[in-house]
Amino acid sequence: MAIGGSEQELVDALHRDDPAALAALFDRHGDRIYNHCFRQLGNWAEAEDATSSVFLEVWRHRRRVRLHDGSALPWLYGVATNVCRNAGRTRRRYLRAVSSLPGPAPEPDHAERVAERLGTEARMQAVLEVVAALPAHEREVLGLVAWAGLSYEQAAVALDVPVGTVRSRLSRARARLTHLTEEATHDD
Amino acid sequence: MTDLTPPPEQPLSDQARTRIRTELLAQADEGRSSAPRWAAPLGAAAAVALVAGLGYWAVTLGGDDGPETTPALATASTTPSAPPSPAASTVPTSPSAPIEVATGTCPEELPNVLPGAEPALDFPVGGDGGTTSFFVKGDRFVLCDIREGTTTVQQPMPMTPREDATTYAVSTLNLGGPGHRTIRVGGGLVPEGFMAYDVEYTFPDGHTERATKAKDDQGRTWWRMVYAYDGGGGNEMDETPIEVTVSYSGAQHHYTLGWGIYTCAQANHGC
User: Fold this and answer.
1) CATH code at A59?
2) Would A55 be classed as within a structural domain?
3) CA-based, 20 to 30 A from B96: which of A108, A126, A177, B211?
4) What pLDDT tens digit does each residue of chain B (271 aa) get?
5) Least CA distance to A159: which residue of chain B?
6) Minimal Cα–Cα distance from A27 to chain B, Å?
7) Does residue A127 sit within a domain?
8) Which residue of A has its CA nearest to B79?
9) Distance (Å) from the C-alpha of residue A5 to the closest C-alpha of chain B?
10) How far off is chain B from A35, nearest CA to CA, in Å?
11) Mutate to test the interface with A, among B3, B5, B12 (most CBs of A within 10 A)
12) Domain, as residue range, for A33
């Protein structure tokens, strides 16, 4: 298994049950998936766990991995979107269940790093609060195209829907967000 | 709140990257074969992976509190319909216990990477007490390096080297500590018939380390490079990549070792 091989070689190796291919795929795309999960969950620690789950899912379904224009990334984004959607549901249930309990003590870390993480989490959660008004399928298109930078075609592969559906969902999402932000401005 | 721009992207921390990578390799190995794998040293890692993996899926069972569409792709068939029990309604958390891996001898670790491989050569013990050995089976070999209490077995490589960066990939051992000590090891077989074959690695700290060579009983020449330096603890993705210069047949060949892709050649533990 050539660790530095092409994406096609990696996928071929995955089909041959080669764990090194999974590790290589993680090395290549782990950061992008991590950030995609963060943008869905608004929490770096949960994004870490979700990233691990995404690649475990990739291994479980390694024979279904497919390439788009020579890259497995769109397919990975699809898996990540599903994993993080489920993680988000679990988190919301959890927060409802334990909302009356004191929070866990923060893990020891460098103060600056903690502050930075908390700052970015607060900012992302604020963004997520706004886009929570959108239907889930519109949020997902927004996350893939506007935030992760996927093309319409790549997002279509990730979500397993036609390209036209991606376009229409994004268009509706933008219209809704424009309306929402106008309303917010008006209320202020 | 009208600014819908998410915060800037951040890379996974080295610690998280190592943890996830270790989990993935352990889980993948577990899933590939039912035979006992990785023996005692990796047992802990496999257990962590099982807790993280199976536990995670246990708490993400079914249920739906929104109008989301049916999951597509991979998870569509992996989301059971039973709702989670209250006891299972916890957000998955990172395993906090350190993962003890790769502390066996080379013969103990090798069966998990290249079963049946036979010893070919032991490089002389270096000043740091570390050892490097090569093992061969058929048309493949593995490098096994023991340093600072960790046994690193690299991915099996072909006995006929490929002319690309894969041949010069290094394994990485992050020791941590104040300077974030990092050890990189590379090695391989000098192609048959090459009289002059020199391999040099230039690291982010500017140091160039030349590989040393040794012959085995069968007359084959092997090269090995070991270099330890203070990594600084920052994100290595932001650092200048390791450059390799290979000289043979009167020509020089240059390779750039992309972080992660060519700097995590080990097969038995994370980076």
Assistant:
1) 1.10.1740.10
2) yes
3) A126
4) 467 889 999 998 887 888 888 888 888 876 654 333 333 333 333 333 333 333 333 322 233 333 332 233 333 333 222 222 322 222 222 333 333 457 789 998 888 788 889 999 999 887 888 999 999 998 899 999 999 889 999 988 989 888 888 899 999 988 877 777 899 999 999 988 777 899 999 999 999 999 999 999 999 999 999 999 987 777 777 788 999 999 987 888 999 998 877 888 888 877 7
5) B72
6) 5
7) no
8) A86
9) 8
10) 6
11) B12
12) 1-101+108-118
CB contact under 8 A, B93 and A39: no
Task: Tally the domains of chain A.
Answer: 2
Report whether B74 contacts A61 (CB < 8 A).
yes
Closest-CA distance, B249 to chain A, in angstroms, reads: 25
Contact call for B260 and A92, based on CB within 8 A: no
Task: Give the phi and the psi of residue B56 in degrees, each rounded to 5.
Answer: -60, -50
The reply to whether residue B72 touches residue A120, judged by beta carbons under 8 angstroms, is: no
* Cβ pair B65:A4 closer than 8 A: no
Query: Do the Cβ atoms of B84 and B101 come closer than 8 Å?
Result: no
Whole-angstrom Cα distance, residue A113 to residue A111?
A: 5
- Residue A160 and residue A72 share a domain: no
> Do residue A160 and residue A95 come from a single domain?
no
CB contact under 8 A, A160 and B73: yes
Assigned domain for A125 exists: no
Chain-chain contact of B4 with A51 (C-beta, under 8 angstroms): no
Within a domain: residue A187?
yes
Looking at the structure, tell me whether residues A84 and A15 fall in a common domain. yes
A24 touches chain B (CB under 8 A): yes
Joined tokens for residue A69: 């224009």
Q: Is the ipTM of this complex over 0.85?
A: no
A145 vs B contacts (CB less than 8 Å)? none
CATH number of the CATH domain containing A180:
1.10.10.10
Q: Does residue A86 share a domain with residue A22?
A: yes
